[in-house]
Amino acid sequence: MADDKKRYNIRISGLGGQGVVTSAHILGNAMDNAGKFASLVPFFGSEKRMAPVEAYVRASSQPIYEVGEVVYPDIIMIYHSQVVTHGKSYTMPFYTGLKKDSLIIINSDIDVLDEEDKAVLNRLNAKVIQFEATELAKKVAGTELATNMAMMGMVLGMTKLVTEENIEKAVRERFLGNSFVASGGTASLDSAIEKKFKKKEELLSKNMEVINKTFEMAASIDLSNAPLVTKIEI
Amino acid sequence: MSLNKKLVDMNYLLKEAPREKHFITGAQAMAEAVKRASVDMAIAYPITPQSEVMHLVGDIYAQGHIKEYYRAEEELGTMSAIAGAARAGVRLFTATSGPGLLRGLEAIVSWPGHRVPCVLGVLTRVINAPLSIQPDNIEMAYLMHSGIVMLHAENQQDTFDMTLAAFAITEKVDVYIPVSVSTEGFFVTHAKGYVEMMDEELAFNEPDPYKAPVPAMDNEVPPARIQRDAPVQKSNFMSYLIHSVWQQEIWDSNQRAMKYIYEYLGGPIEVQNPGADVMIVASGCAAAQAREAHRYAQEEGLSVGFVKVRAIRPWPKAEIREALATTKTVIVPEHNIIGWLCKEVKAAIPNSGIVTEGPRVYGGMTLPVELIMTEIYDALGMKSEVLQA
């Protein structure tokens, strides 16, 4: 995707507990660290594992005025295959409103798109990247809780919106700062993951390892002549 | 009792005092304004849905920025208590949302006639069934015919500045009716934006009882009857007469607020790219979406302008007429089904046929900029990219 694109409207669909809202906040802060602009809107019902959660991020090199959910996204990130297969998104099908020439990143290497989906997405000249973000998180960081880091690394690697330094600072703010609480559920997940890593610095470096890995993967992807779906081995 | 702040006039506070940038929610922005307004008393009922505003105002009361906080029994009680407290000559603040506003409406519509100076925050939420707690702003239509001054904030910064200005406007001797500051729930109240604020040790001058056109009641020696001869006790004709001159004076007071809206807020409307073929007219959160559409249109080199309406009452009829004098199409994006702003715009200009109905979203839905762009392309006779469902 072009580096000079002025605005990305990103819709992130996932399930409760996957860190959808957290990664939206980190994306926003990374943009801020890069001297660019971002706005974000989380959207969830009752906070529980496996329930649909969406977050919307607008990222731009210019100030952003508009607010609200992203109805017409140009990037869609799917954190769980059930978003597609079980309709766990706020709009169904999950690509409702997708604009032309857009990007979809799915955390799964299973063929989750049916023929009808593929026909619509081909018509829109969309590109789909599929990879096992959760497996990658487990392999590199030793926990599926770093799935969101893998997804975030992939989208930032593909769009080149910010540098790895910008992201590292944002991840550091998220886990070492004390100014951010997404919700009570997030706080308990935080304490769970903190127990897993004795030191927060270790948690930080594991997260960054995941992000660096996805950056490397993104650098090897050329979508210019790619078919609709590109599957990436982890 | 004093709050130990450096007291300054509103012009200094709004225009000259040094400001620092903060990243806060719209609800915080409103509470931060209240913090700097030397408020004597806040009154509220914690109804659902609400915004965080009255909770945050409770916090700043606990921190010593407000003299008194009274938790009323319910919304009608809140709004009645505001009227009662106003008789004691104190500076008042309350805020409510959607169903709470309607529940308190009986008392609220009587405030202007009772010459109650106060500031009312309206953080809009759906009021009509089916149940929703989302930010539809149809409730503002119910306030439009009450006589109350109505400001409509586009974002967190507006919410802060307008709330502060409202405290000055409501107490002007030639106004002395309540001022409401509305903004969309969730989109503004729950979302963070950049707000430039002055130091919290600065505060607006305390109310001057000698400048009040209605003397405060001495509750140490309360009057036996507030009105010796209520209009209803006179003949019907006296009642009609008193009511008519009284309400005419209220609406004149409402009009007289306009010069202060110019003084403190730079006027009731903001115009970008005047004289364009297509003008987008919007207020509140819809103005943020319209501002974005206007920017996209400029990038595409289209003849599109933008009018943001800050004051819904007094209604800036002359200003709107002038801003739309040469345009060919007017687009009015709104967050409600009836299109109350659209009706007002149509009534303000001689050629109402140029006004497009909408785009509108209801039930608190997002107003996508793409919907406004589609209307712009249609107005300019351009083929627009069809948005898939």
SSE topology sketch:
The complex is a heterodimer of chains A (234) and B (389).
Chain A lengths: L6 E9 L4 H14 L3 E8 L7 E9 L14 E4 L2 H5 L17 E5 L7 H9 L3 E5 L1 H9 L5 H13 L4 H13 L7 H13 L3 H20 L9 E3 L3
Parallel strand pairs in A: 1-4, 4-5, 5-6, 6-7
Antiparallel strand pairs in A: 1-3, 2-3
Helix pairs in contact in A: 1-5, 1-6, 4-5, 4-8, 5-8, 6-8
Chain B lengths: L5 E3 L1 H7 L2 E7 H10 L5 E4 L8 H10 L5 E4 L3 H12 L5 E5 L1 H11 L10 E6 L14 H5 L5 E4 L3 H15 L8 E6 L7 E7 L3 E3 L31 H21 L1 H8 L3 E4 L5 E6 L1 H15 L4 E6 L1 E3 L3 H7 L5 E3 L8 H9 L6 E2 L12 H11 L10
Parallel strand pairs in B: 1-10, 3-4, 3-5, 5-6, 6-8, 7-8, 12-13, 12-15, 15-16
Antiparallel strand pairs in B: 2-9, 7-14, 11-13
Helix pairs in contact in B: 2-3, 2-7, 4-5, 7-9, 10-13
Straight-line distance between termini of chain B: 61 Å
**Average pLDDT for all residues of chain A:** 87
Name the overall outline of chain A: globular
**Structural domain count of chain B:** 2
CATH homology group of chain A: Pyruvate-ferredoxin oxidoreductase, PFOR, domain III
Tell me the domain tally of chain A: 1
Radius of gyration of chain A: 16 Å
Please tell me the CATH architecture of the largest domain in chain B by its name. Answer: 3-Layer(aba) Sandwich
Which CATH architecture of chain A is right?
A: 3-Layer(aba) Sandwich
Question: What would the principal axes of the Cα set say about the shape of chain B?
Answer: globular
Order of secondary-structure elements of chain A: EHEEEHEHEHHHHHE
Question: In CATH, what is the class of the largest domain in chain B?
Answer: Alpha Beta
CATH superfamily of the largest domain in chain B: Thiamin diphosphate (ThDP)-binding fold, Pyr/PP domains
